[in-house]
Design a protein that fits this description.
Elements lengths: L1 H18 L2 H42 L1
Helix pairs in contact: 1-2
């Protein structure tokens, strides 16, 4: 969902710049930032899951 928020936010921001609508520009900027934050959170969760799996593999090796 982060990618879509970034894309839509960028579109709103650009439309706001072109029309001189500062509230639309701000809304787009915030939506774009939210999308970037969602992407970062998703990547962090993927890294954490990978580390949990890696730790479980090491634990299994130790137990054998």
């Amino acid at each position: 969902m982060g990618f879509l928020d970034k894309l839509m936010g960028r579109g709103k921001k650009t439309a706001g710049e072109m029309t001189g609508d500062s509230s639309m520009q701000r809304e787009g900027m915030h939506q774009e930032q939210q999308g970037m934050a969602e992407d970062r959170a998703e990547k962090a969760e993927e890294m954490a899951q990978s580390e949990r799996e890696h730790a479980a593999e090491h634990q299994a090796e130790r137990d054998n």
